[in-house]
Every structure is written in C-alpha cells, then in structure tokens.
Amino acid sequence: MDESSEKAMGETMDVNEEEKRSQEEVSKKEEKSEEMENGSQNNEKIDEQRPPDLEENSSEKKDKFMSNENVMKEDDLSQLIGRSEPRSQVVLDDDGQYLRYGKWYYIGNFESNRILGSDGRDSWLRRNVNYSLAFRLQAAPGNTSDIVFTGQSFRIDVITPRSPNTVSGVVAEPSGGIRMDGGTVNDGQDIYLAPGWITGYRYFTLKTDTGKRYRIQAAALSSTNNGHWFYHGSSNRVDSAGNTTSSTFGFFNMIQIQSSIGGVGLVNGESRATPALRQPAQLRATASPGYEFDEWRVVDSNNISGGTITSRLNPNTEYYLNDRSNEHTVKITPIFTRKHYKISTNVSPANGGSASVLHGVTSVAYGGTCRIQAIANRPGYRFVRWTVSGAGSSVADVNSGNTIFTMGTENATVTAQFEEISFIAEAEPQTLILGGQFTETQLKKLVKNVTYNGQVLTENDYEVTIVSQPDTDEVGEKTADIIVEYKATGANLSLSVPVTVNWGNALRYKGWGSASVGAFVYHPDAGLITPRWGILNNNTFVNNTEFGMNFYYSFKQFRRTDDSFDIKDLMPVKELSANGNSPADHFTSEGDWATNVGDIIEVKHMQARNRLTIMNNEEEQAVSVKDNQAYFELTKEGYHLLQFDRVETPKVSISKGMTTEELDKEITNYLDMSQAKNVEIVGFTKYPETSKIGESKGTIRVCEKLTTGKYVQKDYEVVFTVESTTLEFQEIDHADFDFGRVKKNSQSQTVSAVGDAAPALTISDFSDSKSWEVRVSQPEGLKDEQNNELLGASIRLKNIQVAQSVHDNILVPARTITLSAVQQSIAQAQTENIGGGKNKGITQLQIGDSRDGKLSGIDIHIPRNTVANASKYRTTIEWELVGDPTLMNG
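User: That's the sequence. What structure does it adopt?
Assistant: Structure tokens below.
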C-alpha cells in the first residue's frame, strides 16, 4: 500500500482495534449485569404463572434463555412452570441460569472436606489426581419438565475420568448414606432399572440452602424411611429426620462463551457447557453481517491452568480442559473484526457535475465513515441528492453536497444526482476583514450573472438571503451560504460564496512564542473595534512563562467633548488589561467596542518592540512606541498614530537673569520636536527661576490637532541649567593674609601666614574664550600707617595647585612665586576641546593648605637688620583673570 492509500485508510474511522480491546470489558459488564439481575431473585418463590425473573419479559432476559436452539421456548417453559408445585423454586446454576435436566455440570463449594473415599467412583472430587466429576440430573418418570425445580425427583448420573465414555449411577444406602454405585452403563441407557442395584433409594430431590447453594436428599420409596441427606464425611452422617447440618453445593458450568460484538459463539451448541475432563468441547463462531471472525480469546481462566484451544484462529475448533475446578468457570470470547468494502462514486447525468470521496479514501470498514462531496461543474446545474447502492450503506444528509457516508455490508457506490435549472446565479467572491459581517445592503453584491430561462435579471428581480455568515475570527479562506430567490416565480437556489478574511486595520498583540493574544480590528464604517484571534493561539495563557502575575498589556479607549484636553485628565471609556497568567483569550472578555471618530486609543505592551504590530493594507509593521506605549486617534480612515507624547526634553542651558519674554522667544530651543512633526508648542505654563546659577525647572505645554478639529495637549517638564555667559572670578576665598605679630630680630626671618583654610580662587568660565590665564602681582611694598615701608620684605605663594576644573588642559607654571610689582602667571588654561567646542563650568585653584592654624602656602621673608617700627604693615595683592579675547579683573 502506498503512502496515500495508507492515509486514506486512516480516514475511514475503522474501529476494529478498538473492538478487540473492548471485548473483554463487554463480557465483564454483561457478566456483572447478569449477577445483579439474578442475585435478588434466587430465593423468590415461583407463583402459579411463571418464575419472577421472567415477569418483565425483557428482550435481554429472553435472549438469555432463547439464544440457542437447545433451549426450550418461553411458552413451553411457562407451561412447565405452571404445572409445578406452587411452593417450588427454579434451581439456578452458579451463573444464574435455569438448571436443566440432562445437561452436564460440575458440583462444588462444599463446607469442608469433599472426599468420601479413595475410589474415584465414590468421590465427587478426586484430590490425588486433580480432576472433577461431571454430573447430570435425569428427571423421574412422569416429569416432562426440562427445567429443574426443588422438590422434584431425579436420578444422578456421573462421568468419571477413569471411564470418560461411561455413565455411572448415584444411589442411596439404607443405612443413611449416598454413594456412587459400582455398576456402569452406556451413556443414555436406562440406568435406574439396572440389575444388581440397591432398590431402596434410587431417586433424589434438591432443597434450597442459601442463594444458589442446595442440599440433596434421597427420596424414600419405603414408608419406613424418610430419606437421607447427602453428607461429606463418614463420621457426620445425619439421622433419618435430617436434624443435623448437611453438605451444600452449587452447580457450575465449566466453560462460558462471553458476548461479543460482531457475532455469536457457542460451546457444544450452547452459551455454557461442561464437557468431560480432557474431552474436547466444540467451539463454533458465527460472524454477523459486516464482520469476520478473528480469533478465540480466553478472557478469564479463573486460575485454571492447562486449558488448550486447538486452533485459536479457526472459527470451528475445540477446547480441552486439562485441569480441574469445582467452583469456577473458564470464560472464552470470540473476537470479530469489521470487514472492509470498496466505495466508488458516480454522477447522473454525466455532465452535471463531479462526485468524489475526500482524502483519497477507496475502502471503508463496515460501520466506518468517510466524507463525500458533489460539485456542480458549470452554471445551469445543481446538486439534488445522493443515491446509495450496497446493503446497509447510507449517507447522513442525502440533500447535502458535502456529507458523511457510512459503509454497510457489501461494496457500495454513491451516485450524485444533478438537475438542470432554469434559474442561474454565480457567486461573487468577497473580502471581509476580521470580525466583519455582510449587511443587508451588501447581499446582492454576493451574486452575479443572475438569469432566468436565459434572461438576465436586474437586482430588483431577485432577493438574496444570508443563511450563514462566514467565520471571521481568523484570517483565511471561508464561505458564506446564501439563497437567491426569483421574485416572479419563487424559484430559488443555494450558493456558497467564497470569502477571503483579511486583517484589515488591526493592532496585533502577541504573547508567549509570538502567538496571537488579540487583534483589535477597527471598522470605521460600523463604528466598532472587534477583538479577534486573527490566527488561533493554542496556548493556555498570555505569557505566563516570562511575566506570570505581572502586567503584560493594556488597551484603553478615551473620549472628550472639549475643544482641547490633556490626556492625563481623562478617564477611560473602556479598558482591558492582562497579566502574563491571564487566559490567552482574555482579549474577548469585553466583547466588541463601540467607537466614535476622534476617540483616542492608548496601547501598552511590555514587549512592544517585538510583539506589538499594526496591519495596514495587509502588511505588518512594528508600532512606534515610547516607553512601550503609543496613542492612536480613531479616524474615518483607520488608526492614526499620534505624536503629542513623542516630544523630547534635552539638556538646556539658559543665561542667568533671562526674562520671561526672552524665554518665550527661545522656547523652540528648549524642546526636541524631531519625532513630533504634527505637534505645536502652546507655551510655558511655568517659567524657570533664572536669578540663580544652577538647575531650575519649567513646564512647557504642547498640543496636537485631531481630525475632528479638537486638540489633545500634554505638559512637559524641562530641567534648565542657569549659568553665566562670562569668564570671571566667582569667588576669591581666604585671600586676606595675616602673618600675626613678628618680633624684631637682627637675623632674617620667614613667617607663615595664619588661618584655618587655604586660599582658593574659583573661576567661572561660561564664555567663548579658547584660553585664559590667572595672574598675580604686588604693586607696592608693605607699609605702616605712617607710610613707612618695610624694606626688603617679600611675600611668597607656595604649592599652587588645581583643586578641580571642567577643563582638561590647565598648566601651573611655577609651584612657588615671590610676589612683586610685575604680574606673574599662576595658572593657564586651554579650554577648547580636540575636535572643537569647549566645556563650560568651574575651575578652582588652591594655594597650599592649612595645618595647625598656619597656612603652608603663604609666608613672608624679612631680611636681617631690617628696620621696622612697632606698628602694622599692610599691602595689596592683585589677582587678574585674562581671557582671549576678554580680560576681566576680580
């Protein structure tokens, strides 16, 4: 079989394997059902009409007694029961079936030791060789009943393995026991008149003990004896009145054929039988129409070993029971399988259309199904019905061009019947978008070339009715079913219109594995947003793996009637929010969304970069987002991306002391509008503070005009850096030097200045100067109040260093400087960066440091023999900041 044929066979829904697996379950269920049915009836008294378990006359119970030819008919049974003693009971075997005269059984379930003697003839069960004896009850003369009742007289026959073809009789001794007589006769011979037997007690009766367990008693033929009970040990014989406990037992069928689907099985011509040990039981299986025999299967051996089926695959075979059991039944089931039959197609008339079995199926099992299809090949014909040939075969809907065929019991042919029509119309292929439906005004656009008897009809001549809208939850090829009716005559025809479902203008949300978790499709004409799958997602959750209980996406709708508004001031008209562990179809929870032109939609997706897209003209594009969020206006044309949230706020520097008028003039320089082309600046709602150098915040409002003429607004907070535009000394700290009290001395002296903080110069450079230099000088010497100069005294600056600077290239020419009237450079800065531009900011120079109240970077040297008055001496030190091209003094 080629690959396509194998696939075709798989499409026929063959149930053979399933039937095989279910045979044992069916058998067990029926067995359990029988037990339940009969369990409550075993001890009920038989009335004068019929036994209680036949009163309902159900088909199931009829089958139980009438399934085999050897079982008498129910009417005969009723007559026999009617002649029975009113207080008699029907005797049941362990399966709950009526005990029958002349049928072989095994007897078991005694209370204790079942052995009467070592002789196989005297034993109900011979232990040492593990075999059972088969027993049958033969009715006494004058008893024409086939069914055994308690209280009836009968004799007992037994077959022993020692002489399997010989029947022995069981008799009663005058002393009170029951034994098996040593004499034998051929099977069927009149045993109870055999010579040499004891004539005192030759017939027996049964009495109910409990359930389906009975006691046996010898029937007395003498007025001096009351009869004897069967006993199970030499020391426990009962008296003639039967006052002590006697042995109880039940009747067992050794083999039972279980019910089977597809046929009937029999053992020795019945559903239950007890063959002689090691003698063949004839198994016969007959298949029902549509089935064929497969095998015999022992479904329950009840721990009985050694049973053998001669040919398991032969419907007519033998079963040998090699072990023994007095209390259990071997259950055998015939297994049947469904036959396969060929299916073929035909069309009538030949030019009316085509018929086919889908998926290439060529054969189907009995009761199996396949799909068949009929198509009218050209205008002017239409499919009418299916006809089927082949016993037992059928189609689900004879009037449907696409339906299910069920195979019968022989090869089948299905014929598609077509008819020529005078009313003709052709389906016009259509396109819808997700969530869309055809309206009444669109229906006549679904057909074309509508004619009646060759005459072209106008739209006013016919009506089109929609039978079923196409499924628009997913994109793809679908159909819409319609009926076209000619108004003048009422003639009508059914058509299937091909419909292509497209995305339309849809915002697509995706989740785990980029699977769809909702396509929000906008229908401007209908004023709706329809959430649909687009592509079906078989995931259970939105994205539980990566986000779990955390937020994943939202979809919000805003509406405002004011001419201008700030989006943050609005409450959503409708909103939908999902976490990672939300159901995948959570997007459907709000149904369809009613919309107005001018509504604003906010979309947010935590993985917007890869899993939030928009469909335009059936092309998928990434949604431009800011912080995983975007806004759209609903217009007459579709979703329109808004930009009012795309304004950037760069770092902005403004001059110290700028006025509000100056700020308004420069406002366009304070926002980056490159990603917000359609956005306009409204103005400041809060001005920055410009009186102090440093950071200051201001707020600027922007707006975007909607297609409705309204404006949506947004306020942006801008951080301004207020700075100077000059090169200047910002601070000169601790520059008043105090050398304390100096004692006169003929020797030279060097004295450090006193102070708790080192002198520092802070340079503020927000200018365009490419370089600057700090210079220092002492124009005059130290003089007292009388203008007397301390001749020869000099001040030195030591350990000059750059404490901090925004400039990378600063030079300190000398670490130590002796002040004089001539200007000297203490620091030089090149402020222009490599590649152009410069850094603007603060530079701080420090002179030495402070240790124990003395300044290490400032001292005064007084030569020896310097004439000094007892007074204070002072001088002025000049610091100069020279820039290119600006020179400014501090």
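The radius of gyration is 57 Å.
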